[in-house]
């Protein structure tokens, strides 16, 4: 049996733009993705702190250091520039892996700079 746990989280990410005329997904600065080990095209769950919307999509990379968090396609209707988001990624773990698991968490400021980062336990 596999157990689904939080793998990683970007907390308080600020939406920098919305692109309705796009195929879909969420564009995230590649540095932020790497910080919490979110892969390109990985499924993510997003919670908008401004309006309570929750939606699933997938991550695509924005240029490193750009601090871009962009809602694309239909997800552009789920928020607006300046909204704060929580971006979650989950993983499937064997029961014997659960006790040793620690999710990667980065808390971001208003400029999408990490103010706190919980590194993965070795």
Would you write up a description of this structure?
- The longest helix has 6 residues.
- By secondary structure, this protein is mainly β.
- It is built from one helix and nine strands; from the N terminus they run βββαββββββ.
- A nine-stranded mixed β-sheet has the order 2-6-3-5-4-7-1-8-9.
- The chain has a single domain, classed as Barwin-like endoglucanases.
- Strand 8 and strand 9 form a beta hairpin.
- The model has no long low-confidence stretch (mean pLDDT 95).
Report the CATH architecture. Answer: Beta Barrel
CATH topology: Barwin-like endoglucanases
Total beta-strand segments: 9
Please give the order of strands in the largest beta sheet.
2-6-3-5-4-7-1-8-9
The gyration radius over C-alpha positions equals: 14 Å
Number of domains: 1
State the share of residues found in helices, binned by percent: under 10%
Low-confidence stretches: none
Write down the CATH class.
Mainly Beta
Integer average pLDDT? 95
SSE sequence, one letter per element: EEEHEEEEEE
End-to-end Cα distance, whole Å, is 24 Å
What share of the residues does DSSP label as strand, in percent?
over 45%
**SS element count, helices:** 1
Overall 3D shape:
globular
Main beta sheet: strand number and arrangement? 9 strands, mixed
The secondary-structure class comes to: mainly beta
């Amino acid at each position: 049996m596999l157990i689904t746990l939080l793998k990683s989280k970007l907390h308080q990410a600020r939406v920098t733009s919305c692109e309705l005329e796009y195929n879909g997904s969420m564009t995230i600065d590649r540095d932020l993705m790497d910080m919490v080990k979110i892969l390109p095209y990985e499924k993510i769950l997003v919670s908008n702190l401004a309006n309570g919307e929750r939606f699933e999509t997938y991550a695509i990379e924005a240029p490193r250091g750009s601090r871009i968090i962009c809602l694309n396609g239909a997800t552009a209707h789920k928020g607006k520039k300046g909204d704060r988001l929580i971006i979650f990624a989950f993983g499937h773990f064997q029961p014997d892996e659960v006790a040793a698991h620690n999710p990667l968490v980065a808390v971001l400021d208003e400029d999408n700079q990490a103010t706190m980062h919980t590194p993965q336990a070795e």
